[in-house]
Design goal:
13 helices; single chain; 10 strands; D-Maltodextrin-Binding Protein, domain 2; alpha/beta; 2 domains
């Protein structure tokens, strides 16, 4: 009798154990380079939701353009972090039906933080307008830095002699070697690459952005003095908002994304205390021009609800139409 009861208890525990495992759901978040703030935010969110039944895969990427398209196309990829100006660009392209669908159906989960536009260059480059005729690194294709740099040059009418499409590590190496004159890097300060990879002896400086057309298109801000050990004075610049997004596939990931958002919203204090320092500047209720919060998120912020359905697979194409549209517009 005792052995039968014991065996029954063991069986029950095994059933409960594996039933518990089956309750866990898997999500994926597109972020950025592994040394960047997007990726660190992803790791913080992964840690937060793990104990609450969500296994969050944190996927590195080249940045915002890849992320926006991946959320639209990749199987089981429900979330991505993008720069707010990426959707602004996509919304302006009316000729491509895929881009129209992305613009109409991409929804904001939450606003995150401001990403300052850093332009680092030789000390003889007095301001942003002085980039005309210079060799300038604008980031690698697919990155948010690439899109923002190209849009900023487009709206201001500044025409460098050469646009160099390389990643930020390579750009800094070329800048130090005097192979280029300046580089763009769009990221929340302090940028680790500039904190650790630049010294006073390099003879480099942050280039002020005060161009009137730039400040109409982007948020005016400052990089305070001393953010970097080699930067003794305040520098005027502009910024773009980082946004956590999802794609509005009705009845597929709605409850899953809503549940994730609820966990984030209710535990923002924990993220501020235990996560990346930029969580301290995150206002989850802040409005972002041009963005609509996902209704699947709004309903979960006022009610606790149903179990999340399994995510449905979506095919992923090799050609990113967002990147193609960027090239078309900027090569005209």
């Amino acid at each position: 009798m005792k052995r039968g009861i014991a065996a029954g208890c063991v069986t029950l525990l095994v059933v409960l154990y594996f039933s518990g495992l089956s309750l866990a759901v898997t999500m994926n978040l597109m972020t950025g380079r592994e040394k960047g703030t997007y990726y660190q935010f992803g790791l913080n969110l992964q840690q937060l939701v793990k104990s609450r039944g969500i296994e969050l895969g944190v996927q590195p990427s080249t940045g915002s353009i890849e992320n926006l398209y991946a959320v639209f196309k990749r199987p089981h990829t429900q979330l991505g972090i993008v720069q707010s100006d990426v959707l602004a660009f996509v919304s302006k392209v009316q000729s491509n039906p895929t881009l129209l669908r992305i613009a109409q159906k991409t929804k904001m989960v939450f606003p995150l933080y401001n990403e300052e536009i850093h332009v680092l260059g030789r000390k003889d480059i007095a301001d942003f307008d002085s980039l005309a005729g210079k060799r300038v690194a604008v980031g690698e294709e697919g990155s948010g830095t690439f899109l923002t740099a190209r849009l900023l040059l487009e709206v201001t009418g500044i025409k460098p002699a050469e646009l160099v499409m390389v990643g930020t590590d390579e750009a800094l190496a070329r800048l130090k070697a005097n192979q280029i004159d300046a580089m763009f890097y769009v990221a929340g300060l302090p940028v680790k690459l500039f904190s650790e990879g630049v010294t006073e002896a390099d003879g480099l400086a942050l280039v002020p952005i005060r161009n009137a057309k730039a400040t109409e298109f982007y948020l005016q801000t400052k990089i305070p003095a001393g953010v970097y050990s080699w930067q003794s004075s305040e520098v005027s610049t502009v910024a773009v908002k980082a946004v956590l997004v999802s794609f509005d596939f009705r009845n597929l990931d709605c409850d899953l994304v809503g549940r994730f958002a609820q966990i984030l919203y209710e535990n923002i204090g924990w993220l501020r205390e235990n996560g990346h320092s930029k969580w301290g500047s995150v206002d989850l209720d802040a409005p972002v021009k041009g963005w609509e919060q996902y209704d699947c998120v709004r309903k979960y912020l006022v009610r606790k609800g149903a179990a999340a359905p399994a995510a449905a697979a979506r095919p992923y194409g090799e050609i990113n139409p967002i990147m193609e549209a960027v090239k078309d517009m900027l090569n005209r």
